[in-house]
Design goal:
The chain is of the alpha/beta class. Helix content is 50%, strand content 8%.
Length: 474
């Protein structure tokens, strides 16, 4: 590789004002080396369950599975097939990983100024010791460098787990998962370190074309026939118990809107009956999801699993991409939400219940100060998840902290989670949060709003304490 050394600024994410920057440096020094709690993400547990697992090629590691990466390239006309993204319709995609890497390197400049660019730069320089900024000319030399590193035993997933100082990591697993990888991890002594998270969306969304098959698998794993709403609820409760036994501390739910609505048993049976016959209408799916959010809140109050709710995303906006490549390919787009009215039914039922905990995530950041902060600032059950997806960036985090802390306070936040499929980006993502929170608190200190002693305690909470308590990891 060339002679130009690629180094990130040690003051990245810090304010240009000398007084604030100095305070930020001091606060960051308190948290930069702390262990990582990752209570929500999408890392495949098989990556850690198999002691001999490897990351594969550099393209496998950084490009093919990561929609943060390939969605931006797609926006500039780089075909997903040319990036090796697997198709579900059987159409061919690029299989030469050096070619995939070359296309990525040719367009690496597109990531300038983006959070993905910051994570990738940190990952390449800090984890894999790349010393020259990636571009089309040096792409193959850097590919060779990464291949050499990935072949070493110190770059296996388990070795990097130790190097990254990961304390706990929660994956996201469908309700129909056998949990085989998690059970294998528990048998290998990893119990309490890698935990499943119960994700029932595929058996709740009546509009999902795969709903019928998913329901069959749910019944098989739960050991019962699902014939009506009552047996459906029992099957879900049975699966939740299995997840909890495997170490789960939380559930995860996605919905277009936060609308909650309680159906009568008769209405719920009617909706399910139409779905079983393949006659469900779009409004059936929306009403059933709204009803099930209340049912899941009840279950969480009873079994203690923390309920996470991700709202405000128009999932799989591109029909063309969805039909060829499937879901979760970067085409989820924010939509407007109404949390105040939408959550009223469920919060009237469980918002004051000390057993219940609800962590809210949104892609509609206009609701931060108008709705989410006031809700979290009143209801004991409500916590605010960190800026999600398009807002897990330096400025997105700053806007979040500016918008919510005055009304909700720091201690009604759920800390940080990386929400990533890209294992090797975990430390970079947490580092950005720690830097931003240190800098934000430093700004409060220099403006005289809090003192240095309080800021030191608060930055520790941002790094670990908030997440530990919100997810009941204490």
């Amino acid at each position: 590789m060339g002679t130009t050394t690629w180094r990130l600024s040690p003051d990245r994410c810090f304010d240009a004002d000398p007084a604030q920057r100095e305070q930020a440096r001091e606060l960051y020094s308190l948290v930069k080396d702390l262990s990582i709690l990752s209570p929500h993400g999408h890392v495949d547990p098989a990556l850690l369950a198999n002691p001999n697992a490897a990351f594969g090629t550099p393209a496998d590691l950084l490009i093919v599975p990561d929609h943060y990466v390939f969605r931006l390239l797609h926006s500039q006309g780089v075909a997903l097939a040319d990036l090796g993204v697997p198709s579900r319709d059987g159409t061919p995609v690029e299989t030469d990983h050096r070619r995939i890497w070359q296309r990525f390197a040719d367009h690496f400049f597109l990531f300038r100024g983006t959070p993905t660019g910051l994570w990738l730069s940190d990952e390449l320089t800090s984890v894999f010791e790349v010393e020259e900024k990636l571009n089309g000319a040096n792409a193959q030399a850097i590919y060779d460098h990464l291949e050499t590193r990935l072949a070493r035993p110190e770059f296996t997933p388990r070795a990097l787990w130790t190097r990254f100082r990961i304390e706990e990591l929660c994956t996201t697993d469908p309700a129909t998962s056998t949990l085989a990888d998690h059970l294998a991890l528990r048998d290998q002594g990893w119990g309490g370190r890698v935990r499943p998270t119960f994700r029932p969306d595929a058996v709740v969304n009546l509009a999902d074309p795969q709903w019928g098959g998913n329901m069959e698998r749910l019944g098989t794993l739960a050991g019962m026939d699902i014939v009506d709403h009552a047996s459906y609820i029992r099957a879900l409760e049975t699966r939740r118990a299995s997840f909890k036994q495997a170490g789960a501390v939380a559930t995860d739910h996605a919905a277009r809107t936060p609308h909650t609505e309680r159906l009568s048993p008769r209405e719920a049976d009617q909706l399910l009956g139409r779905a079983f016959r393949g006659e469900a209408m779009p409004e059936d799916a929306a009403r059933f999801t709204a009803h099930m959010l209340i049912e899941f809140a009840r279950m969480s109050a009873e079994d203690g699993l923390v309920m996470q709710l991700h709202v405000g995303s128009f999932r799989d906006h591109s029909d063309v991409v969805f039909q060829r490549f499937g879901p979760d390919k970067g085409a989820d787009i924010p939509v407007r939400t109404n949390w105040t009215e939408g959550l009223r039914t469920v919060l009237n039922a469980y918002g004051n219940d000390p057993r219940f905990r609800l962590i809210l995530f949104t892609l509609d950041e206009s609701t931060y100060s108008r709705e989410l902060a006031p809700l979290a600032g009143f209801y004991p059950a409500v916590f605010l998840g960190p800026p999600w997806w398009f807002f897990d960036s330096v400025q997105g985090m700053n806007r979040f902290l500016d918008s919510v802390i005055e009304t909700a306070g720091l201690y009604n936040l759920a800390g940080f989670n990386d929400d990533t499929r890209a294992f090797c980006s975990i430390p970079a993502r947490h580092d950005v949060w720690r830097r931003v929170s240190a800098n934000w608190l430093a700004g409060q200190v220099v403006r005289g709003l809090i003192d240095r002693e309080d800021a030191a305690e608060m930055v520790l909470e941002c790094a670990q304490g908030l997440a530990r308590r919100a997810y009941r990891l204490v």
